């Protein structure tokens, strides 16, 4: 009997822990849920009481109805935009990591590249969108390129900070045992940079969403950005809001996917 009780207790403790984590997670988002509900109720009441024109400010119920009735076209547009975001984000992450590693590994290259990278970051990226459309057409390429130029910088900068903040005592120890600069980079600096890199990647995914929409505004025949522009010309403001909701949900999906990867594989690292 005592043995059975002993084996049951760990399960109960585990269930209790899981329940506590769920309650803690719900407690964290509860204020946001309450605030959102209050804002939506006030918005709906204002829209109905003052009888605002739907093309000026549609009510939440009208936007919800649009989400249901036009979900097919919204989902198709979201798929196009998601593809642009994914490809552009992955490429910008690779480019940012390569730049950071090259600056950390090759000192002279770092002195030459870093100031140019900072200078390029100050160029207004929206102004580049029409040029990319002119050079590469209306397909996927200009959107991906625009995402890369917008999103690579936080990846490169955050990873570079992580590479350069490696424990100097550990670096000195590696040198005393005959490790080359490349070995120090691979075994000490890159592992040390992972928390900073993940912070940069989470910034990059939000910029990737913005870059995709800006690229579609500049010139596209599909996607949520294109749908917003089309709905604006047709005075379908509810559809504009519905597309904005889809964009927000898409951005949250990508962001929390990265959060999950960070929790799954870099849980040992301190949060920045």
List the helices and strands and how they pair.
Layout: H1 2-49, H2 60-69, H3 71-105, H4 107-121, H5 128-136, H6 140-164, H7 168-176, H8 181-218, H9 224-233, H10 237-265
Rounded to the nearest angstrom, the radius of gyration is 24 Å
Model regions low in confidence, pLDDT < 50 over at least 5 residues: 1-8
Q: How many individual helices?
A: 10
Strand content: under 5%
Largest sheet, in brief, is: none
The residue fraction in helices comes out at: over 70%
Shape: globular
Number of strands: 0
Measured between the Cα atoms of the first and last residue, the distance is 48 Å
Q: Would you list the SSEs in sequence order as H and E?
A: HHHHHHHHHH
Secondary-structure content class: mainly alpha
- Overall average pLDDT: 85
Please summarize what this structure is.
The protein is mainly alpha-helical and 272 residues long. The chain has helices at 2-49, 60-69, 71-105, 107-121, 128-136, 140-164, 168-176, 181-218, 224-233, 237-265.
């Amino acid at each position: 009997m005592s043995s059975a009780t002993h084996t049951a207790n760990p399960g109960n403790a585990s269930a209790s822990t899981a329940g506590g984590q769920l309650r803690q997670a719900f407690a964290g988002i509860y204020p946001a849920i309450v605030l959102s509900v209050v804002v939506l109720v006030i918005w709906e009441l204002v829209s109905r009481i003052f009888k605002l024109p739907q093309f000026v400010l549609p009510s939440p119920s009208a936007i919800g109805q649009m989400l249901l009735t036009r979900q097919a076209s919204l989902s198709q547009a979201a798929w196009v935009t998601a593809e642009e975001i994914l490809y552009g984000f992955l490429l910008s992450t690779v480019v940012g990591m390569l730049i950071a590693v090259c600056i950390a590994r090759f000192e002279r290259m770092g002195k030459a590249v870093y100031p140019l990278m900072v200078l390029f970051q100050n160029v207004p990226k929206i102004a580049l969108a029409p040029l990319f459309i002119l050079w590469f057409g209306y397909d996927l390429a200009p959107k991906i390129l625009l995402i890369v130029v917008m999103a690579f910088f936080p990846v490169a900068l955050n990873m570079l900070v992580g590479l350069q903040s490696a424990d100097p005592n550990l670096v000195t120890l590696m040198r005393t045992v005959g490790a080359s600069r490349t070995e120090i980079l691979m075994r000490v600096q890159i592992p040390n940079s992972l928390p900073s890199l993940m912070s940069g990647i989470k910034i990059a995914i939000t910029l990737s969403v913005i870059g995709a929409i800006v690229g579609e505004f500049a010139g596209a025949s599909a996607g949520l950005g294109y749908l917003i522009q089309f709905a604006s010309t047709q005075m379908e403001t509810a559809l504009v809001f519905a597309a904005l909701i889809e964009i927000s949900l898409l951005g949250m999906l990508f962001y929390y996917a990265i959060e999950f990867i960070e929790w799954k594989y870099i849980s040992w690292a301190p949060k920045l």
